[in-house]
Write a structure and sequence with these properties.
Blueprint lengths: L10 E5 L4 H11 L3 E6 L13 E2 L2 E2 H6 L4 E5 L4 H12 L3 E4 L5 H4 L4 H7 L4 E6 L14 H7 L21 H24 L4 E5 H6 L3 H10 L16 E5 L4 E5 L3 H11 L13 H6 L1 H12 L4 H11 L3 E3 L3 H6 L1 H5 L3 E6 L3 E6 L23 H7 L4 H10 L2 E2 L1
Helix pairs in contact: 1-7, 10-13
């Protein structure tokens, strides 16, 4: 299959499972890299994240592994380990997200692999990074969200139980950061011919989500807490209840604030000293939300959205996931795409979020079935058909 996108020509070996590593792989694959996912004999654990299934295939696995080719190897078998070494000799990138020491025990650590391939970019995604007192700990999104401070600023307000974000943001962000790091290292490798190690973690990914709150804490010495949908620095900038649902409104700067008061028919609030400036509004944010809600409950969301748009005010509905999938902007930006799977048939997946004018990303391949491309990949690596057949028969390779 012809590769498209700005990373066409990059060869990636993905020795990663479940989420953070596979996110990195799918980002690179969408941008044109040839990503070969190496699975254990019983497959990536996300194959067992069921329900839901589509024709017996895990929906979770298919989402995380589109655009990749798949090979399954039993790395306890010397023949399988040799096959993997051969793949890595010609690779540009390897991605792994195992516990510290796992790759070294398999003879696949950075120091070993750079001897056989000096230009290899070795991407490690872990719970806490490969240095520091927590380097040996495993990585889980929930734990990272708690330790990075994210759960302390998520939720309805003070005194309520801690809440994690609905999406596994530290997993996903770590994968995106890793893809960014790999791309930067690849640019350098093209200039110098030398690879390097790229090391990021779920913990650091969570920390990067706290820019505003960390700025406040650095400046005041006080740790910010949860504020529901409100913004820690500007207001009103949050979700409000309407006659039939909810609406997000961003009327934070003074010009938008005055325009917003006209739209909701409350110009008198401009004379209220509690709301005169952004500073005043933030000091009285709770009462501000209560006052504004009395006005916004008078009309349904659709009416307010129409009026806000006419006035040039930032506003939007609170959509559920299916509504987001059907939204015309998501459709226009090709964020919902169809791809043909050999077992599940035509399935939907999310599109690539970066648009390139000259080398567009593309979703052209469904997630592989277990070992789907084992023969194909090994033939490309120089194995003969009878050698591959023997390895399949012995259980070193699965197809």
């Amino acid at each position: 299959m012809t590769q498209h996108g700005p990373l066409a020509g990059m060869k990636v070996i993905e020795l990663a499972h479940i989420m953070a590593g596979p996110v990195c792989g799918l980002m690179l694959a969408d941008m044109g890299a040839d990503v070969i996912k190496v699975e254990k004999p019983d497959g990536d654990d996300s194959r067992r994240f069921v329900p839901p299934q589509i024709e017996g295939e895990s929906a979770a696995y298919m989402m995380m592994n589109r655009n990749k080719r798949g090979i399954a190897l039993n790395l306890k078998d010397p023949q399988a380990k040799e096959a993997l070494h051969r793949l890595l000799e010609s690779a540009d990138v390897v991605i792994e997200n195992y516990r510290m020491g796992t790759m070294e025990r398999l003879g696949l650590g950075y120091d070993s692999l750079r001897k056989i391939n000096p230009r290899l970019i070795y991407c490690e995604i872990s719970g806490f990074g490969r240095t520091g007192p927590y380097a040996q700990r495993g990585g889980f999104d929930l734990i990272a969200q708690g330790m990075s401070g994210l759960m302390s600023i998520t939720g309805e307000g003070p005194g309520r139980p801690p809440v994690k974000t609905g999406a596994p943001v530290s997993d996903i962000t770590a994968g995106i950061l890793a893809a960014m790091g790999v791309s930067a290292a690849y640019a350098r490798a093209l200039q110098t011919g030398l690879g390097q190690k790229v090391d990021t973690s779920l913990f650091e990914a969570g920390i990067t989500q706290t820019y505003w709150q960390s700025a406040i804490a650095f400046a005041t010495g006080v740790a910010p807490g949860p504020m529901g949908s409100a913004h820690p620095l500007n207001g009103p900038y949050q979700a409000f209840q309407t006659a039939d649902g909810w609406i997000n409104i961003g009327a934070a700067n003074q010009r938008n604030w005055l325009r917003f008061l006209e739209v909701i028919g409350a110009p008198e609030l401009n004379d209220d000293p509690r709301f005169a400036s952004n500073y005043d509004r933030m000091q009285h944010l709770e009462v501000l939300a209560e006052v504004l809600t009395t006005y916004l409950r008078k009309q349904p969301t659709a009416v307010w959205l129409e009026r806000m748009e006419a006035a040039g005010l930032p506003a939007g509905p609170v959509l559920d996931i299916l509504q987001m999938h059907a939204d015309p902007q998501a459709q226009a930006r090709e964020m919902i795409v169809d791809v043909a799977h050999p077992v599940a048939g035509q399935v939907k997946t999310l599109g690539h979020p970066i648009k390139f004018s000259d080398t567009p990303a593309a979703i052209t391949r469904a997630a592989p079935t277990l070992g789907q491309h084992s023969r194909e990949v090994l033939l490309e690596a120089g194995y003969q058909a009878d050698e591959i057949a023997q390895m399949i028969a012995s259980g070193a390779v699965i197809e």
